[in-house]
Design brief:
With 373 residues, the chain is mainly beta. The chain contains one helix and 33 strands.
């Protein structure tokens, strides 16, 4: 009798075991031997370490620069050197060949220098905390703008957010101190090169600004002392679409491929909302801290990387990749052996290559992910 019951249970369990969820991980061949400071660009690799950049294809090493930037399409690397009160820009292709070099206008505040190359070779330079100058590929000035608040109590260094294709660019001042409160402001660049104010607050500061892949959507993550975090969803012209309030402090926000959904992560939790109605689609929680996450509506699946992030080293240890199938209410995870390095000039992202197939790009090691549910 007992044997018969056992055989019956085994028969019932077999389909469940055969359909068990799992994740398969494999490092892409071009990045398999990379250390945490080496990154894959469009036509070659670079190692960025201790104030040096080495182009692997040409074996060229460059040092002595004040700041560096990499274009969104990973085809160009720009360096800013400073001396004699002026800046000197060098733009390389991803193999290390020099494309152009020129001197800039006078630069004064080395602590706030920033260089942002565009896919077409144009360069955006930051100086004096909030002043920006745009140069074309010949080194001619296209335009300039100031994002300064003129606050006598001080302000943070203005930051830049761009869409992957460079269609949309936002300059934002994350913190402006006035009357003992922290406020903020943001401007978007229009097609004619002028800027439009899209956000201002005297009592909420900006934690981050994120732009969707197609450049049509902007998410401004705001916070206030003693208050809740809030995500403001706007179109590319700054028109308000929706807002989402979070009781927990937000760490990151990301858009789905077509901008229809936005993923919020805080500590070990991830929540997905529709952008049109700000309606909660689903979410999950992990024991570990979430480094990055995104939602793929085609598969109704959340991908998340958890681990221990070191800001000083810009690296993630104890890495685990997690997948949550919302439709099937099922979770799978897989530990990754080794450390993932990141660069301030390359935004890491998940991309969907086909149904239930994804890839992590922008890290020192790029990882193919296959989910089975």
């Amino acid at each position: 009798m007992i044997a018969k019951i056992f055989r019956t249970l085994l028969f019932l369990l077999l389909p469940v075991l055969a359909m068990g969820q799992s994740l398969n991980l494999s490092v892409t061949s071009p990045t398999s031997n990379n250390n945490r400071s080496t990154f894959l660009l469009k036509r070659g690799e670079v190692t960025i370490n201790n104030g040096q950049i080495r182009f692997h294809r040409s074996n060229k090493t460059v040092d002595g620069f004040t700041d560096y930037g990499i274009s969104p399409d990973l085809s160009k690397v720009s360096l800013l050197k400073w001396g004699g009160g002026k800046g000197h820009v060098i733009v390389f292709d991803s193999m290390g060949d020099t494309l152009t070099t020129y001197s800039t206008i006078s630069l004064a505040d080395q602590s706030s220098f920033g260089i942002y190359p565009q896919d077409n070779g144009d360069i955006m330079l930051r100086d004096k905390i909030a002043d920006f100058t745009f140069f074309n590929t010949f080194g001619d000035i296209i335009t300039n703008m100031s994002n300064s608040s003129q606050s006598k109590e001080g302000e943070a260094i203005s930051e830049v957010a761009t869409s992957p294709g460079g269609e949309t660019l936002v300059v934002f001042n994350p913190k402006i101190k006035r009357n003992g409160k922290l406020g903020s402001k943001a401007q978007v660049r229009l097609s004619d090169g002028t800027f439009r104010n899209i956000f201002y607050s005297s009592d909420r500061y900006l934690k981050n600004v994120v732009i969707s892949n197609d450049g049509d959507m902007i998410a401004a993550v705001t916070a206030a002392s003693g208050g809740e975090d809030k995500v403001l969803l706007m179109d590319k012209y700054g028109n308000n679409i929706n807002s989402i309030t979070s009781k927990d402090p937000l760490d990151a926000v990301s858009f789905s491929d077509e901008g229809q959904y936005v993923t919020l992560n805080s500590g070990g939790s991830v929540t997905v909302y529709s952008t049109e109605k700000a309606k909660r689609v689903g979410g999950t929680s992990f024991r570990e801290t979430v480094f990055m996450a995104n939602y793929f509506p085609e598969d109704d699946l959340i991908l998340a990387i958890t681990g221990d992030y070191s800001k000083m080293a810009n690296a993630l240890g104890n890495v685990k990749i997690n997948a949550v199938n919302l439709r099937k209410r099922s979770i799978a995870d897989h530990e990754f052996s080794g450390v993932l390095g990141f660069s301030k000039a390359i935004a890491p992202k998940f991309i969907r290559t086909s149904a239930d197939r994804y890839e992590l790009e922008g890290a020192s090691k790029e990882i193919k992910i296959e989910s089975h549910f």
